[in-house]
UniProtKB/TrEMBL annotation:
Pfam families reported for this sequence: adh_short_C2 (PF13561)
Keyword Metal-binding carried by entry: no
UniProt keyword terms in alphabetical order: Oxidoreductase
PANTHER family tied to this protein: DIHYDROANTICAPSIN 7-DEHYDROGENASE
Protein name: NAD(P)-dependent dehydrogenase (Short-subunit alcohol dehydrogenase family)
Length: 260
């Protein structure tokens, strides 16, 4: 590039030349991940229910991961726009509170359609593109809830338990063709989702303070911190990682601390 040219300097991130799709990429952990991937040089497409208001540099496709046709069309359109798919971040997910007795079977099906079958749909649609990639990587957003036995979270926990076992089974199935599959298990992360839960409490500030105090490091995990874990696992820098379960949780899953 000549001095004084108005062309942008070429990106030199480790994702230069790679293409990524991020489900649930319009908010929270997914948006932080999409932005970080783009910062590091990836061509990124966000697949989400609503995709208005996203930064210009992110391609965007309105996709419902609970709908077969929507996923098939959205993944194909994203691959067409990006010129292939090297990286899939399966991040779209919804929460659910209650015991087995509290959630009826329709609610169980609704959450599994998104949190579990959404990953199956998107991965199935992306596999033909991943098989053509020299740097194929799938990263699933799991949760501490997969193994923690959190009260009042039976349905959500079971869905994330399925994400954990799916990650490891997929890693085994696709290692021979060079496709890595990993997941992150975030602790409670400061995203719009958690913000909405806090706002619905009688005293949101007190609720936030109590939630912070329950974390080993005294605060919520940030969306950027979870994104950094996802981006590491998506990156060629983690080329020897597959079936990895990466906690981003302030130590919650591995430390044995008394509550503060
Ligand atoms: P968020 O609500 O801020 O973002 C989730 C995004 O997923 C939204 O943009 C939403 O529109 C999208 N989405 C929901 N249903 C969808 C569907 N059917 N099709 C396409 N997109 C859909 O939430 P977040 O906190 O950023 O959560 C992201 C992921 O992280 C989820 O899988 C969640 O289970 C997981 N997680 C979150 C936390 C936390 O404390 N925030 C902790 C552990 C794991």
């Amino acid at each position: 590039m000549t001095m004084g040219s108005e062309q942008e300097a070429p990106s030199r991130g480790e994702f230069t030349g790679l293409s990524a799709i991020v489900t649930g990429g319009a908010s929270g952990i997914g948006l932080a991940t999409a932005n970080l991937l783009a910062d590091r040089g990836a061509a990124v497409a966000v697949l989400d229910l609503r995709v208005d208001g996203l930064p210009e540099r992110l391609a965007r496709f309105a996709v419902d991961v609970a709908d077969d046709d929507s996923v098939t069309a959205g993944v194909a359109a994203a691959a067409d726009r990006l010129g292939g798919i090297d990286i899939v971040v399966n991040n779209a997910g919804i929460g659910a509170q209650g015991t087995v007795a509290d959630n009826d079977l329709d609610e169980w099906r609704r959450v599994f359609e998104i949190n579990v079958f959404g990953i199956v749909r998107v991965t199935r649609a992306a596999l033909p593109y991943l098989r053509k990639s020299e740097a194929a990587s799938v990263v699933n957003t799991c949760s501490i809830a997969a193994t923690a036995g959190i009260p009042q979270r039976a349905l959500y926990s079971a869905s994330k338990g399925a994400v954990l076992s799916l990650t490891q089974a997929m890693a085994a199935d696709h290692i021979a063709e060079g496709i890595r599959v990993n997941c992150v298990t975030p602790g409670t992360a400061d995203t719009p989702w958690v913000g909405r839960l806090l706002d619905s409490a009688p005293d949101p500030a007190a609720e936030r303070a109590a939630l912070n105090a329950r974390q080993p490091h005294g605060r919520l995990v940030s969306a950027d911190e979870v994104a950094a874990g996802i981006v590491y696992l998506a990156s060629p820098l983690s080329g020897s990682n597959t079936a990895t379960v990466l906690p981003v949780d302030g130590g919650m899953q591995n430390l044995r601390l008394r509550p503060r």
